[in-house]
Design brief:
The protein has 481 residues and is an alpha/beta fold. Helix content is 25%, strand content 16%. The chain binds ligand 9MR. Ligand 9MR binds next to loops. The site of ligand 9MR has 9 residues, from loops.
């Protein structure tokens, strides 16, 4: 158990593991809140994030890094976490460039999406000519190596990128040639390598609901969900450029994927000439879908874009905000707070008598974690219902913490359970049980494990859900065994 002495109290914290759980969180957003003046702050009002791709080589450009740090609260490494960057020689991993971006972001309280682990493109030379079980094993080893390095640190990983053809069939590649199950093997490997991170499938041209590729990816996600293949999210790259534009059915696409029990995110947005109507429309579609957890644009200034000749981003080459910036900001500011969780159900059985409810050391306080980061893996401070941090909690020795009603548990990460949070130990261990000690602290059943505060974003608040996605639960102490 880690003791935090700053206030002479023990700190109790949880880690949120489901973006949906937090989408549905009870955000503290006063209805009279003033409009936010940055993209990240504006998105946060509805429990979302706003991100950008970051090129590590540009971080020394102060105009670039100033805008990036000011405006965004999520970043994706544009190239630095791809296979050719992270495993340049077989089984020789190099995280220098990826860590540069991770550390830049983490030190500023900005979260990071990992991009990408298994892709037909940007493979290191040694991998490109591999085939069969040799390649399959190399893919698995790569996922384990990279995810092991970033274990517990990232918000999400694009586990597999761009694996479909435009007609909805699988893209032919050396990875596909190892067997049609290569994608689910990648996801299963990823889940085991880092149970704390959201696992995403990421692709372009899957924004139009009636398009063949969209339908092909949808069927795969549907199949994975039905068979319990671990997958948490779908990234729609949203490159409205090079001839494609915002389809009228974009929101239908987002809500249809979400209905499969996954989060959706817009992961690489850019729009030819930064059309204000398209930028506003894609943003509105996201905020209209509760499980659309955030938007990432693919670069900071037009001059940073992979398609700079199309001026597709929100800042011009001089770092000035473009009209599209304002259109996005206005939509984000117009979004209401994230929906609150489902009402607390009436327990079917009364709680055991006595002090079985976990309450704060001050009378009447219950465990609550309002406000939120919506990002899996975010480590947060546990608050009481009055917004007090660093509370101690009433105890009963040799008891365990569990949910009040029925057989619900205080756990929920993993596939198939879309609306709950995982409590982690300080070592990043999921699925722990917890003892409440005689001094009011909570420790893991396994010796020495404590609840922890993940990341630097202490003060963010999240809702605790049960395994059935019920919010606003009360928790009680039950005897061990
Ligand atoms: O923006 C990236 C560019 O710097 C690289 O040269 C290119 C190489 O494939 O990848 C770009 O990012 C791509 C992303 O990783 C996946 N979706 C399409 C993006 C734009 O090509």
């Amino acid at each position: 158990m880690r003791r935090l002495t700053r206030h002479g109290r023990y700190r109790l914290a949880v880690a949120a593991a489901s973006a949906l759980a937090v989408v549905g969180a009870a955000l503290v957003v006063p209805s009279l809140a003033q409009a936010a003046s940055t993209l990240g702050a504006a998105a946060t009002q509805s429990g979302r994030y706003f991100g950008t791709a970051i090129a590590g080589g540009r971080l020394g450009d102060s105009a670039y890094s100033t805008i990036a740090a000011r405006e965004f609260n999520m970043v994706t490494a544009e190239n630095e976490m791809k296979p050719d960057a992270t495993e340049p020689q077989q089984n020789v991993f190099n995280f220098t460039a990826g860590d540069q971006i991770y550390n830049w972001a983490n030190s500023r309280g900005i979260k990071v999406r990992g991009h990408t682990l298994a892709w037909h493109s940007q493979q290191p030379g040694w991998m490109q000519n591999m085939s069969g079980s040799t390649l399959r094993n190399a893919m698995i080893n790569h996922i384990n190596g990279v995810m092991g390095h970033y274990r517990g640190k990232l918000a999400a990983w694009d586990v597999v990128n761009e694996a479909f053809n435009e007609d909805g069939s699988r893209r032919q590649s050396n990875l596909q040639a190892t067997g049609n199950d290569w994608i689910e093997v990648a996801f299963r490997t990823a889940r085991a390598a880092d149970p704390s991170v959201k696992l995403c499938y990421n692709d372009y041209n899957i924004e139009n609901w009636s398009y063949g590729k969209t339908q092909g990816v949808y069927r795969m996600i549907q199949d994975f969900r039905s068979r319990g293949v671990p997958i948490d999210c779908v990234g729609l790259q949203t490159h409205f450029t090079g001839g494609s534009s915002l389809p009228g059915n974009f929101q239908t696409t987002l809500s249809s994927f979400a209905a499969l029990g996954v989060d959706v995110a817009l992961t690489e947005v850019d729009v030819t000439n930064a059309s204000t109507t398209q930028y506003a429309g894609l943003t509105q579609a996201c905020v209209n879908v509760p499980r659309c957890i955030g938007i990432t644009v693919w670069g900071v200034r037009d001059s940073d874009s992979w398609r700079s000749n199309e001026s597709p981003l929100l800042f011009d080459g001089g770092g000035n905000k473009k009209a599209a910036y304002t259109s996005v900001l206005n939509v984000l500011n117009g979004a209401g707070p994230a929906p609150t969780g489902t009402p607390t159900p009436t327990p079917t059985t009364p709680p055991p008598g006595g002090a079985n409810r976990i309450v704060g050391s001050q009378s009447g306080r219950c465990i609550d974690v309002p406000n939120s980061s919506r990002t899996n893996g975010t480590r947060v401070q546990l608050y009481d219902c009055h917004g007090q941090t660093n509370q101690q909690w009433t105890w009963t020795a040799n008891r365990q913490l569990t949910v009040y009603a029925g057989s619900m548990c205080l756990d929920a990460a993993g596939s198939g359970n879309s609306a709950a949070v995982q409590i982690y130990s300080c070592n990043g261990q999921a699925n722990q049980q917890w003892n409440v000690n005689s001094n009011g602290t909570i420790t893991g059943v396994q010796s020495g494990r404590c609840l922890d505060v993940w990341g630097t974003a202490n003060g963010q608040q999240v809702q605790i859900y049960d395994c059935n996605g019920q919010a606003n639960q009360q928790f009680r102490l039950v005897p061990v065994g």
